[in-house]
Write a structure and sequence with these properties.
The chain is mainly alpha-helical and 186 residues long. The protein has one domain: Cobalamin adenosyltransferase-like (Hypothetical Protein Ta1238, Chain: A, Up-down Bundle), CATH 1.20.1200. The chain is built from five helices and four strands, in the order ββαααααββ. The strands form two sheets. The chain has a two-stranded antiparallel ribbon with strand order 1-2. α2 packs antiparallel against α5 and α3 packs parallel to α5. The radius of gyration is 18 Å and the shape is elongated. The model has no long low-confidence stretch (mean pLDDT 89).
Length: 186
C-alpha cells in the first residue's frame, strides 16, 4: 500500500526543492517535476470533463484513465518504478476503437469546441500533448518508462475521439477547419 498523506504543509519545499518518491530532493524546475506537474494537470482536466453530464461509456473510460494517470505519475515520481503494463496501452487502443466505430469518418480537421464537455475534452487533449512533450524531454535526459510515453501518446488520440463522441451524442455538429476561410459545420 502506498504512503498516505498525513501532513500537507511540510515547508520542506520552501527552498525550491521537492522530494521524489525514492527520497531524492530535486529542484522544482527539474524535468521530472515538470512531467509530474503536466500529468497532474491532465488528470485535473479530465476531472473537468467528468464534472459535465456525459454518457456512461465515456465517463467510465475517463474515470479509469484518471486512475492510470496516477500510475504514470508514480513511475515519474520514483525513478525506475514500473506501474504500467502493455494491458494499459492495449486498453486505450480498445477504447479508441470502441468509440471510433460509432463516428462518421473525418475528411477535414476538426476545430476544438462543441458542447462544454467536448470542449473540455479537447482542452484535456491539448494538455495531454504537453504532458507527452514533457515525458519525451525527461526520457531524453534520463531513464523514463517507454510504456508511459506510449500510454500518453495513445491517450491524446482517445481524448480526440472522446470529444467527437460527446459532440455526436449531443447531436452537436463539429466545426471543420476551412483553410483561409470561415469555419463550417460538418
Amino acid at each position: 500500500m502506498a504512503n498516505r498523506l498525513t501532513k500537507i504543509t511540510t515547508r520542506t519545499g520552501d527552498d525550491g526543492t521537492t522530494g521524489l518518491g525514492d527520497g531524492q530532493r530535486v529542484g522544482k524546475d527539474a524535468l521530472r517535476i515538470a512531467a509530474m506537474g503536466d500529468i497532474d494537470e491532465l488528470n485535473s482536466a479530465l476531472g473537468t470533463v467528468l464534472a459535465e453530464p456525459i454518457s456512461q461509456r465515456v465517463h467510465d473510460a475517463l474515470a479509469a484513465i484518471q486512475n492510470d494517470l496516477f500510475d504514470v505519475g508514480s513511475e515519474i515520481c520514483v525513478p525506475g518504478r514500473s506501474a504500467l503494463w502493455e494491458a494499459h496501452v492495449e486498453g486505450l487502443d480498445a477504447r479508441i476503437e470502441s468509440l471510433r466505430e460509432t463516428l462518421a469518418p473525418l475528411h477535414e480537421f476538426v476545430l476544438p469546441g462543441g458542447t462544454r464537455a467536448a470542449a473540455a475534452c479537447h482542452l484535456a487533449r491539448a494538455v495531454c500533448r504537453r504532458a507527452e512533450r514533457s515525458l519525451v524531454a525527461l526520457h531524453r535526459a534520463e531513464p523514463a518508462s517507454a510504456l508511459s510515453l506510449q500510454y500518453v501518446n495513445r491517450l491524446s488520440d482517445l481524448l480526440f475521439i472522446a470529444a467527437r463522441t460527446l459532440n455526436a451524442e449531443a447531436r452537436f455538429p463539429e466545426t471543420l477547419w476551412r483553410p483561409g476561410g470561415e469555419a463550417g459545420d460538418a
